[in-house]
Structure formats: C-alpha cells, structure tokens
Design brief:
The structure holds two protein chains of two kinds.
Chain A (H helix, E strand, L loop, with lengths): L5 H33 L4 H15 L3 H22 L9 H27 L2 H9 L4 H31 L11 H12 L2 H30 L9
Chain B lengths: L4 H6 L1 H35 L2 H16 L2 H11 L4 H8 L3 H4 L4 H26 L3 H9 L4 H16 L1 H14 L11 H12 L2 H30 L9
Classes of the chains: A mainly alpha, B mainly alpha.
C-alpha cells in the first residue's frame, strides 16, 4: 500500500533538509568571500569575483552538477594516478552540497555586496578608530548591521536553493524526489507520491517563511519606519 | 587528461538540435505563460475576494514546489488515473498529448512561468501611481480603457527588470527537460558524455552555450529598456 512508503519518503525529506541547510552554510561562506573580494582594493580579486558571479549565474545548476559529478571522479582518479596517490572515493552527498553551495554562493555574493555597501562607512571608521582589528570590525560591526539589508534577498535565495535541491535526484542522490519516483513506479501511483513531495516542499517553504520573519524582526530591532 | 576539441566538433550538429529544442521550449513556455499570466495578474491585483484567492493558491503552489517535480507530475504522474488511461486506449487525440514529453514539458513550464509572471504583473499593477489612475478617472476613461492605456503600459515598464530575471530563470530551468527524455541542450551534453565518456568536453561546452544564450537575453532586455525606459535614462547619456 502507498503508506508503506511514507517512512522512506520522510527519510528523503530529512536528506533534502540536511542537503539544503549544509548547502546554505556553504553558500553563505562563498557569498561572504565573493562580496569581500568584489569590494577589495585589489583589482585582480574584484575581476575574479565578478567573473565567478557572471559565469555561475549564466549556467543552469543541473549542467554544473553533471560536470562535477561525472567530471569530479575522473579528475580525482587522474590526479591520484599522476601523483601515485590512493584515489579518494567521490562522495555524492558532499559533492552535491559543495556544488549547490558554489552555485548559490554567486547569488548570495551579490546580495551581501549590496548589503555591505548599505552600512555607513562611518561605522567601520569608528570601529577602526577604537582600535578594533579588521576581523573584529567585520564580525562585530559590519555583519550585524548588514544582515538587516541582506535578509530579504537571503530569504528569496534560500527558497530558490531549497527547490533546486530536487535536481540532485537526477544524478542519483536519494532525496525525496528520487524516493517518490521509485515508490511511484512500484505502486503504479506516481501522481500520489509526487503530490506528497509537493506538499512536503510547501511545508518546508511555509516553515522557512515563519523563521525568516522572526529573524527579520530580530535584526530590524530599533529601526524606525516612517508612516506612509 | 586533455580537453579534446574534436569531440565537440564532431558532435556539433547534436548540440545545434539541442539548442533548437531548448529555444522552442523556452519560447513556447514564455509565450503561453505570458498569455495566462496577464488575466491572472490583473485578477490578483484587483483583489476580487474569491477569484483572487484562487489565483493566489495557484501561484503559491507553483512557486513553492520545484519545477522538476511539477514536470514529473505532468509526464509520469497523470498516467496513474484510470480515466486518462481509458482515454488513451480510446485514442482520444487531445488526451494522447499527455504521453508526449514535448507537450508535457511545454505545459509544465508554461504553468510554472505563468505563476511567477502573474505575481510580477500583479506587483507592477499595485505599484501604479495613484495620480495616474485618478487622472484617468477624471478624464472619464472606462475601466478597460484605463487598463489598456494607463495602467498596463506603466506596469509593463515597471516589471521589465524582474521579468528579465524570470526569462533567464526559465531558460536555465528548461535544462531539466532531459528528465523526461527530451533532447534539449543539456540532453545533448548527456548524450555526448555517454558516447565518449568525456564529461569535461560535454558539459563545459553545454555550459558555454547556456552562458551565451543568457548574454543574448540580457542584451535584448538592454535594448528593450533603451526603447521603453528611455525616460529613465540619466541625462546626457
């Protein structure tokens, strides 16, 4: 019966959630690095970051995934063979996380760049004047204040990221879309299982909305909004 | 390991056919999506109590689930229903379309892009300056005339930026068409990979083709902006 597969699909949903959250973390790191590089005083860094954001945003995620999944193992084997090392086995789960993180790092980078620029320069100068190191200025002054400007963009990007994890099923990761596909084949009720996946995605989206609103309130604390 | 350009040269016709399929799919989806999105967007902006909520449910569903799942649902999912199977056995011309991957992809993509576009249109209409609407009313324009001459032309100008994003998302989203056996640009890359076991040649070239298409779309929107948003250009530029 169809409900026999419910447990396995929920396990798939758990994998989807893990994959998305870890990818998000990865994307935030790539995004912060990119945004910092785009605003760096070194021209080469700025060009590199601009090239990365342009190229990655112009190529579909599935194509990059196919490249990493099929090309990655080949590259590892090749390097191992050339330097006489033991070849590492390619782990599709972590490869998926790094790939999605790398793709969305380009989008997050643009969001962070705009948010960085929205923080008044005087704040950073004041931090420096107090003798804070550049890391302290970054983590205690720049990041807490820029999050307010970055959150709407981050929220949108997160929802897009969450949905694009479904494509890992095309390269054989057993996320909920892949499991629903299998369950649909064996029970001959594919519509039902795809519908369950849709409902689960909608649930994740709705929960994200609630969390995002909370975080938004937290980081907008004390901001006075004018009446229209 | 070296990059063998010969593979790309010999399989170039395959890529060209894939490019054709991708362009057709995207063009059909965008055209049908726009036709559907226009009335839906107006309904959503007018805030009719029931109709508006139904349109809202439609856009919510399509915007909060992955397009891949929507596509699989249309192509593999609908076949579950006995009623549809009976129509297929009776060789009903219309319902047989649901066994065609090409039709299913067009349908799923159109519905998906229509949901996003309807929200974009609704947002642009809601942002119409109050003064323009009041002026149109003061001139004695009827609802339809006001819509046609004042609100929609302004809304289309305001939505240009976000619609260009949607077009690019559609272009890149169409890459999942190979999941239902269609040989689009990504499908061509997968075929080349399978035939030569050459992932770098196959997928790097596929990626470059998409990159080129993205730049062309962006360029076209730049031209459109120069024509329709000429009044917003900085002076002397």
């Amino acid at each position: 019966m169809w409900y026999d597969y419910l447990g396995s699909i929920l396990e798939g949903a758990w994998l989807t959630l893990q994959l998305s959250l870890l990818s998000l973390l990865c994307a935030i790191v790539f995004g912060l690095l990119t945004a910092s590089a785009r605003l760096a005083p070194v021209a080469a860094l700025r060009w590199l970051a601009a090239g990365y954001t342009t190229v990655i945003r112009g190529i579909p995620d599935i194509v990059l995934m196919l490249l990493v999944f099929f090309g990655g193992q080949m590259l590892i084997n090749d390097v191992a063979y050339r330097y006489d090392l033991e070849p590492i086995e390619f782990n599709p789960f972590w490869a998926g996380i790094v790939t999605i993180g790398f793709i969305f790092g380009a989008y997050f980078g643009e969001t962070f760049r705009g948010a960085f620029m929205a923080v008044p320069r005087g704040q950073l100068e004041a931090g420096a004047a107090f003798g804070l190191s550049s890391w302290q200025v970054f983590s205690r002054i720049l990041v807490p204040q820029m999050l307010r400007f970055a959150l709407p963009g981050l929220g949108n990007n997160w929802l897009v990221l969450l949905k694009s994890t479904a494509i890992v099923s095309m390269i054989g990761l057993t996320d909920m879309t892949w499991l629903a596909d299998q369950a649909g084949r064996s029970t001959r009720q594919p519509f039902l299982f795809y519908l369950i996946v849709c409902v689960l995605y909608m649930l994740l989206t709705a929960c994200s909305g609630v969390v995002l609103r909370r975080v938004d309130v937290r980081y907008n604390a004390g901001v006075v909004k004018g009446e229209l | 390991m070296e990059f063998d350009v010969n593979i790309i040269v010999t399989t170039f016709p395959l890529y060209l056919r894939g490019l054709g399929t991708t362009l057709q799919l995207v063009a059909i989806a965008l055209a049908c999506g726009m036709l559907l999105a226009l009335p839906l967007g107006v309904i959503r902006a007018m805030e009719y109590p029931w109709l508006g909520r139904m349109v809202g449910a439609y856009t919510y569903f399509f915007r909060s689930t992955p397009m891949l799942v929507q596509l699989l649902m249309v192509y593999y999912g609908f076949g579950q229903f006995k009623w549809l199977q009976a129509q297929w056995d009776a060789e009903n011309r219309f319902w047989l379309l649901f066994r065609e991957p090409y039709f299913c992809a067009c349908l799923a993509f159109s519905l998906n892009t229509a949901a996003y576009t309807a929200e974009i249109i609704a947002g642009a209409i809601r942002n119409s300056p109050v003064g323009e609407i009041e002026a149109a009313k003061a001139m004695g324009m009827s609802w339809s005339l006001r819509m046609r001459r004042i609100i929609l032309p302004g809304a289309f100008r305001r939505m240009m930026q976000s619609y260009s994003n949607e077009v690019i998302l559609m272009l890149q989203g169409s890459a999942i068409a190979s999941a239902v056996t269609l040989n689009d640009l990504t499908g061509a890359g997968r075929t080349v990979y399978a035939r030569f076991y050459a992932p770098f040649e196959a997928f790097v070239f596929t990626g470059l083709m998409y990159l080129l298409l993205t730049f062309i779309v962006l360029g076209l929107f730049k031209l459109a902006e120069r024509k329709w948003l000429a009044h917003l250009r900085p002076r002397g530029a």
